[in-house]
TrEMBL record, chain A:
The keyword Transmembrane applies. Keywords: Membrane, Transmembrane, Transmembrane helix. Gene3D superfamilies: 1.10.1760.20. It comes from Pedococcus cremeus. The keyword Membrane applies. It comes from the Bacteria. The chain crosses the membrane at residues 6-29, 41-60, 72-89, 101-129, 166-186, 228-246. InterPro entries: ECF_substrate-spec_UCP037395 (IPR017196). This is Energy-coupling factor transport system substrate-specific component.
TrEMBL record, chain B:
This is Energy-coupling factor transport system permease protein. It comes from the Bacteria. The keyword Protein biosynthesis does not apply. It comes from Pedococcus cremeus. The chain crosses the membrane at residues 20-51, 63-87, 126-143, 237-257, 263-283, 303-327, 339-359. Signal peptide: none annotated. It is found in: Membrane. It is a multi-pass membrane protein. Keywords: Membrane, Transmembrane, Transmembrane helix. The lineage of its organism: Bacteria, Bacillati, Actinomycetota, Actinomycetes, Micrococcales.
Length: 265, 371
């Protein structure tokens, strides 16, 4: 069993490495490499979209296959339904996505690996509900998974400190999510990005980072800041009772307690 | 197995994977060109097939997708007009007042000369995005992604079940939220504001989780979600294949990113890795003893539809690799884009399902009633 767990951890790590590269390749590419030639025509974005669609399936199957029982499936399904419903209700309000509140709180209660699955599935369910499946879906699934996973990885704390830590995390993750999500289509914009804010394949990492920062401030900050603030405010107001309710229900969901026989004395 | 082109096949729902292959193929074709005439043809083909073959009562995401596409075009044109773009032309249409900026924003400008070539480039790029969106909207309208869920490989069985549970419970949770909100308003609360959202979330979530435990118990009683025991050898084989595939992908990406690495480490390695990872999914699914209830057949019409989407993808990708004229029109100086007849014919092949694919049953019945 431990060997298969090692294999699973290795596979997950490798897929995450590919995922990080799929977002950050504009800064990693060296001038003159094959990818920088592909980057001129926008084909590099197409390559990463196809790659992420396949590797997303591999990751989901590695994380779930064979060790997710009926309770796990039902609890994940219901939490993903809540996330999907929140996203459907908030569709059309620019950047105000209360789904992030659920991801942060539930990721905290579920822990890192189940939290990742929840983030990915909540996004997938919302994409199914709004019939909005597209090349962006695998990237969004990975990002939402990271948001929920990060909440599970935060240091152990309780009471008000936990709430404050989660609120700060919600603010940061709401903004970082936008910064990371722009990256998948930024190179694809090619010549129509604003002057000084476009991707130039041969320019090197520092110049591209600078132009990306300009691009982010020009286009995306106005959407991401409200999302971060809303998440932080919701966490401050409602995270305490939500965490209590979630932890109680998750404890109920563990029906098969280990049976031990004590020798009569 | 050859499709009978002369007579229309009997009314039935097509295999959803066939529509998705068609739509993704058309979207890949659209991503390869910036010729506005070809892109407009892609949108027209997608819209015509949706008009002819969408099942009665299915949601029509094509319209919102088209609106988002129009918005994307407008946004790009306005942005290029205000902030300038990568294409600098000679024909200056008008000049906007320029805003002086501090030195650290090197290269950024706001306002200034607006050129015809720059605006046209923005229009073409926006049109490309709109055409890709139209293809995806068409596919979402023709075959609901929910039907695709039945065909996930068996290695993704648990995840597929969780998504089905989520899709079933989401409308109930919206109802629950409305009920809790109505109850709070009856007690004299406004039902608005941040604090209210928190008060609403807890009862809805707790109710949902309690229902999920009932569902888990009934699933357990009916044998759903059982962990399938596989032989150690097959598990080891699939895990090894996955790991080898992923390692190949990582090494291949490194080869693509680094200019000094040998060419073998790049694309070939990536392709081998992807094939191994895909094979691991299929191998895992083959060993799975679960059966499926009433699967859709994959027959002649499915081949016809999926291949008719692949034809434009292959032709236009080959055209991009071999840089055929007409695929990416010259933008400086601005001129009328050419009409490459071969590629027009390739895209027109994708319109074949509008006449040759089987009509969905409800649509066929309503057409009979109207006739």
């Amino acid at each position: 069993m431990s060997a298969s767990r090692g294999v699973r951890a290795g596979a997950m790590g490798l897929v995450m490495v590919v995922g990080v590269v799929a977002f950050t390749w504009p800064f990693l590419v060296t001038p003159g490499s094959e990818l920088s030639q592909l980057g001129h025509s926008g084909d590099a974005s197409l390559l990463f979209v196809l790659l992420m669609a396949l590797l997303g399936l591999v990751l989901l199957s590695e994380m779930s296959s064979g060790h997710l029982d009926a309770k796990g499936v039902a609890v994940l399904g219901v939490l993903a339904a809540a996330g999907g419903a929140l996203r459907v209700l908030s569709a059309g309000t620019a950047g105000l996505e209360p789904m992030f509140f659920l991801l942060v709180v539930a990721g905290r209660a579920l822990g890192a690996s189940k939290g990742f699955l929840l983030g990915a599935l909540a996004l997938l369910a919302s994409a199914f509900l709004t019939a909005g499946i597209g090349p962006w879906t695998p990237f969004q699934m990975l990002c939402c998974g990271w948001v929920a996973m990060g909440a599970g990885l935060l240091p152990r704390s309780s009471g008000w400190t936990e709430r404050l830590v989660l609120a700060v995390y919600g603010l940061v993750s709401g903004m970082v999510y936008g910064a990371v999500m722009n990256l998948w289509f930024w190179p694809f914009m090619g010549g129509t990005a604003p002057v000084g804010a476009g991707f130039v394949p041969d320019a090197g990492a520092a110049a591209n980072l600078h132009s990306y920062a300009v691009f982010y401030v020009l286009t995306s900050l106005a959407w991401d800041l409200p999302r971060g603030l809303l998440t932080a405010a919701l966490v401050l107001v409602a995270a305490g009772p939500m965490l209590r309710a979630l932890r109680r229900s998750l404890r109920q969901a563990r029906f098969d307690a280990p049976v031990r026989f004590a020798t009569p004395s | 197995m050859t499709p009978r082109l002369g007579s229309t096949p009997l009314p039935r729902l097509l295999h959803p994977a066939a529509w998705w292959a068609w739509g993704v193929g058309l979207a890949v074709a659209a991503s390869q060109t910036t010729n506005p005439l070809l892109l407009a043809l892609v949108v027209a083909v997608a819209a015509w097939v949706v008009l002819e073959r969408r099942e009665v009562g299915a949601t029509n995401p094509l319209v919102p997708f088209l609106l988002v596409g129009l918005f994307a075009i407008g946004l790009r044109v306005v942005m290029v007009g205000l902030l300038g773009g990568g294409v600098t032309g000679r024909v200056v249409l008008f000049r906007l007042p320029e805003v002086p900026l501090p030195a650290w924003t090197s290269g950024v400008r706001i306002g200034g000369a607006v050129t015809l070539e720059g605006l046209l480039a923005a229009l073409y790029e926006g049109l490309r995005l709109a055409a890709i969106l139209a293809c995806l909207g068409a596919v979402n309208a023709l075959a609901s992604p929910r039907r695709l869920l039945r065909y996930v490989p068996a290695t993704l069985y648990e995840v597929g079940t969780a998504v089905v549970v989520a899709l079933t419970f989401a409308p109930q949770m919206v109802d629950d939220a409305a009920r809790v909100r109505a109850a709070r308003r009856l007690r004299g609360h406004t039902g608005r504001g941040l604090r209210e959202i928190g008060r609403l979330a807890v009862p809805v979530l707790v109710g949902g989780l309690e229902r999920s435990l009932d569902l888990a118990a009934s699933m357990e009683a009916r044998g759903y979600g059982r962990v399938v025991r596989r032989s150690a050898a097959s598990t080891r084989f699939a895990a090894g294949l996955t790991l080898v595939g992923l390692l190949g992908v990582v090494v291949g990406l490194y080869g693509l990113l680094d200019a000094t690495s040998p060419a073998v480490l790049g694309l070939p390695m990536l392709v081998v890795g992807v094939l191994c990872a895909g094979a691991a999914l299929v191998v895992g699914a083959r060993r799975d003893p679960r059966t499926r209830y009433r699967r859709d057949p994959w027959a002649g019409p499915e081949w016809l539809v999926s291949l008719s989407g692949l034809v434009p993808a292959v032709v236009l990708t080959a055209g991009a690799v071999l840089s055929w004229p007409g695929l990416v029109p010259h933008q400086v100086p601005a001129g009328l884009p050419p009409v490459p007849l071969g590629m027009v014919a390739a895209i027109a092949v994708a319109a074949l399902p509008a006449v040759a694919a089987p009509v969905p049953p409800l649509l066929a019945r309503s057409r009979e009633a109207a006739a």
